[in-house]
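Deviations from the work plan: none for this task. Representative record:
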Amino acid sequence: MLFHSPEFISLLIITILFFYLLRSKRMYILAVANVLFYAASGINYLLLFLTVVFVTYYCSKRLSGKYGSIYFYIGLMVNIFNLLFFKYTGFVFMNINKLFKVTFPWQDGLLSSIILPIGISFYTFQLIAYLVDVKNKSISPCDGLIKFWVFIAFFGQLIAGPIMRGDEFLPQVSNITKYNLNADNIKKGFYYILLGISKKILFADFLAAKADHYFNQITALNTLDGWFATYLFAFQIYFDFSAYSEIAVGIGHLFNLDLRINFKSPYISSNPAEFWKRWHITLSSWIRDYIYIPLGGAKKGFRKQLLFLILAMSISGLWHGAAWTFIIWGIYHGVLSVLHKLYIKRIKNKQYKIFDSRIYKVICIFIYFHLTCIGWVLFRAHGIGNATRLIWRMLNPMYFKFDMVYALYFGFIALLYLLHVLEYYVRDNSERIMSVWENRIPSPVRALVYTIILGIVVLATSTEQNSFIYFQF
Amino acid sequence: MDVKKGMDVKMRRIYKVSICIIIYTILIQIFLSYLVSDRVVYQYRMNYDLVKDRVTNIEAVLEKIKHQIDSQQLKEYYVILGDSVAFSNPGPADKSLVVFLEKLASEQGKDIHVFNLALPAMQTGDVYTMMLKMMEYDISLENVIINLTYAGFVARNPDPPIVFWLDKQLNSVDSTTYTQISEHLVKNNRGVEKGIKGYKQTINDFLYSKISLFKYKDYTRVWVKQIYSDIKGRIDMTADIQPWYTKDYLSEILKQPMYTNTFSDKPFVMDENNLNIYFLNKIFNLQRGKNTLFFLSAMNDEFLKEFVEKSGYQENMKSINTYMLEGSEKYGFEYVDYNGKIEYALFSDHIHLIPKGYEYLAEQLWDRVSKWDLE
């Protein structure tokens, strides 16, 4: 069920109505909405999801007991196995086949029967985080299965995050019956939903067609084409993924649930550390808290820290997809993080004056944005061969050809970047802008603007609704 | 207290904005159809590409035609129904039956409108459904021209579905008839979906047939593109339509089963077990006492010699003509079989005509329908 599909919108409206009409039954209403939402993708996957949720819940209740460690590992293994089986079986077989030149007679039958359940990567990480947090006594085990189901499977964010933690989301779910309809939440809810839908339909879907066009003919691209294609994809994936997260945040607000913002204008980052605090924030912090720090983080010496960084980023890459391109993408970002750490240690700590200047910051942003774009080639291209071919063309002056039409193309990219910066400015000054917007602009004018935006969104929606990129993860 | 007061003010603002949005939405609902250019929605015939991709787009066409009838207070108008022949394929819209018929009328000093609601691949079930849709929009069925084809009477195996395009519409305008043929539709992957798909379809159909913003969505997109291409400078992409004998590939295409089946010489079932007859009888009943002309589209006998010379084919043709002539006596409609009455050079393939052919067909039709008392 896509957020901009009529069936989802009707489910949302009905759930909101019941949610505010039947205060004491809110938990059940959300639980049923979650079931209906997930059931639309297939009853079998719903049953699988319910089973994993139940096992995790049951294990979490027994973590403080005599066999707590055993229950912890059972819970952990069930989740990891569920993810590995559905997401990586094909990848494992493909590599065994290639490496040992063997194929198993039963493998095709097995692989064709495995279809990736939607949202599995997200809900698995949320369940693992909960289990670890309960084990570490950061949170108490959830005191009700229905509540736990609402916490894990909230239909607003189930499929593509944000990945919520027990300490921030469970208390909100526990207090669900206490909230009243709140003007600020209604405004925020509609603001984020409208922002997300506009990003998806007006930008992401539009850019997708253009980016696909270029990525489908990599060998015909010259240097500027290659960069143009990569910029297009960089903005496509940003608009697409941040759109989903923002709609999720908006839906959360309509139920008085505060979901974490997942994207904060990532392309204005000047270094890897900043980038991962702006891009897919809940995944980055998950990787940090449940992989990088448990591995040892910065506590086991500088060299090991660098190694852990690369390892954590490789796992992040593998999480995104069962393909070598994703793993290499993860390693690439790990290496960038390592190089940045080395740079800080060797050069930046010398405190040259230039490091505090605005021009230095702009240069860093420019360089890091382009390094990120090179990474997106690995993410988007079909296979390592295509990815390296395109990167080679982007970096090799031999393929450079200029035509005035590129001025138009790159002008368009500059416009997209400007919008990105504008979004940062609006987010940073949201209180002030909202105050001016509400106090100086009359209601009929504001309403007219909202209606026009809604109208444009409806008109721009393509006949075939495009899925969100991160649904495949 | 201040927080509560502040919240009240905020809620009041939300109510105000919501009310304004509702008002604007109602205004869009009422006025959008007047804003979208008529020529984008309907110009001499429906926009095939838009209707084939989303059948609910016929609603905008019917609404526009109704507006035109009301705003111009039209009393004298004809409606053409049928398949690709009535649609005037493969020629452009400005060289279609409507244009030629209106030209003939104006040459006789008559200001008469002709509306074409035919669509390629339309079957008799679609024609019947379209007639019920016209009634829903209060578009007159008083003067109607309907084209029939030999292929329409051929046994369905199970394809083509007797309602090719308007299956969901049939369900909403005549659920009894829909139920009676639903088994046949299901076999042809048509009909109303069930479960979550059905729910999704119901919502979509509601939005795209009742809510103006959705109803005119595809047309608005085309309109915007047209404005853009007008600014950029439009390139005329229409090519001349050539006669059949200049196209060597046609004979190869004709060997495909989907074509050979349409000239089947197996004896026709001429009772209501044949779904074509079932719907024709329904149409006869609808048109009782109204000006109606059924015409059987001519086949290109020269090109289809090996098929049309078969005795079974000839017998079938006789059966069609007998059935239609008996019907015309009983229900009072007119019927004409154009087989053998159109020059071979006027065909663009086995059944369709070149623009000159449609001009000739229009003359033939005009000879008959111009005699009707339109009041």
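The longest helix of chain B spans residues 2-35.
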